[in-house]
Design a protein that fits this description.
Layout (H helix, E strand, L loop, with lengths): L1 H18 L8 E5 L15 E6 L5 E3 L10 E6 L5 E4 L12 E2 L12 H15 L7 E4 L4 E13 L11 E6 L5 E6 L10 E3 L5 E2 L5 E3 L13 E8 L8 E8 L12 E4 L6 H6 L3
This protein binds calcium ion (4 copies).
One calcium ion binds next to loops.
Amino acid sequence: MHRTSNLIAFGLASIVASAALAQSQPVRMIYSTPGYSDPRQAFNADVLLDRIEFPDGVVVESPQFVFPAEVKQLGYSGTLGCFRTVNGLAASVGLPGCHRLEACDGNAASISINDMKLFPAKLKQTIANNNMNNRTELKANVSFSMTIPLATRVWDSNFEVDERPEIFIFEEQGNSVLKIQACTETGSLLGTPVEIRAVNLVSALPDKIWVGRFTSGGLPASGSYELKYAAVDLTQLGVTSVKWLRITNAGTGGNGSADMKILAVDTSPGPAAQTMTFD
Ligand SMILES: [Ca+2]
Ligand SMILES: [Ca+2]
Ligand SMILES: [Ca+2]
Ligand SMILES: [Ca+2]
């Protein structure tokens, strides 16, 4: 078994040599818009990511996506109306409509301790599904932080930099700046932080993904906007597996805007095989 693990690692290592040039061979994001033959018309409904196809033929279907199980340790520094969840009013997957942080306690005139306690459940509902219309949204010049435990621990497919990334961050228009880092359950940071900037956010292939937007007043805006994504291999995060992630836009020096959707995939040979490498 030990030998098998090494062979798997060795076999994948041969891919790594070309991984630095693999930008020309990105993953394929296959999505659907039930009820809409034109994906650009589904901006007020469901835009469902069905699977991710890796260049080496490995495919991960949406039931195997690993979403955040919770949102914890929420931090926010900003004014009213700048931190909210969005999703099509006609969406059947996720939390429909627009929900603002300050409205959670029934009084939208201020941000209370109760708002901060109640909003994480809405954030979790928003992120933990494959409807790309359902995202957290942050206006410019404010900052947020949160800790998310993934539903299951995810292992790196290869302990070198490889062409099967584990973490996918989606962002409307690709203008976010945010930082992700592995951490422990108690919040101690692990490994290396990875900063996601506009340059890291790319168009989905084979087809661009189109999503909706809400006005600052919380009403659906007309038209569709491109959703971009950044892919992160766990090696970049300086870990071989991850369960807890700290996400923040604080200290990134960006403009603060950071709407977000995040999911993870596990294409590793299996935790048992990975662990045996170290036996
Ligand atoms: Ca309030
Ligand atoms: Ca990997
Ligand atoms: Ca790796
Ligand atoms: Ca954005």
